[in-house]
Fold this sequence. Notes:
Oligomer: single chain
Radius of gyration: 21 Å
Order of helices and strands: EHEEEHEHHHEHEEEHEHEEH
Strand order of the largest sheet: 8-7-6-9-10-11-12
Structural class: alpha/beta
CATH class of the largest domain: Alpha Beta
Strand content: 15-25%
Number of helices: 9
Distance between the termini: 26 Å
Low-confidence stretches: none
Helix content: 25-40%
CATH topology of the largest domain: Rossmann fold
Amino acid sequence: MRIHLGPGHDEHLAAAIVSGGGTLSELDEADALVWDGSAEEFPDLPDRVRWVQLTYAGIEPFFRAGVIDDRRLWANASGVYADNVAEYAVGALLVGLRQFHASVAAKRWTKDVLDPRVRTLHGSTVAIVGCGGIGRAMIPRLHALGASVVAVNRSGRPVDGAKVTLPADRTSEVWSMADHFVVAAPATAETDHLVDAAALAAMPGSAWLVNVARGNLVDTDALVKALGDGAIAGAVLDVTDPEPLPDGHPLWDLDNAVITPHIANTRSRLTQTFAPTLEENVRRFAAGEELIARVDPNAGY
């Protein structure tokens, strides 16, 4: 089976293709494409390409670019980087609850000022909205810190380790069921502005919100108002809407907003982390078996 690796050569991905039973080839001779580039760079595909493997978990740019079709198989990296992002999300909760960001910014002793805002994760309930691979990787980490979990997923099928699991069509109920919230759902038409003014108003005033999904899942204007009014305690955002967040945006001026530049999944080991999944998918494709993280073009993820 001939596979083209693009847009450039990566040693970890190339080795995985060969170990899985594939042969590296030029695109016009390939049966499959492994793509580690952007949607903007995506090439025109010859008809002979029957499978495209993307190395990203979030593939919304490829849908927006119109390159994902139903003429061939597509797979992404959903779930592969779950541990990386779960580590970030739990750390983000600790940053907010322990007020690490305020202490880092401080230029003098601020104990009396910070004391009322410093809280512990132990004994709290964390709602994970979009409890897929990332959420499942978060649960043992949260349990180790003494927190319990409420999960929201598409089907409502119980998630191991969650004390309650709600289906997506009951998401509105979760905002009053937990102390803190992590957004990890896919970006679809149904999840746009999932966290809106009503959701923020229903959260406890001491709540911290963490977004590791996509910026548009949170209504930015509503969040700015909620943070400014003190309706919730704070937010840690690894993704924003718009993204990149422009200079001068109101979020930058809020001391209860912590913003990181989309780094929950570290690029430094991305292809090395993804290589075992790629190797297995090469083997499965050759054997005619179901691919890991197959994309549904109609569902949008």
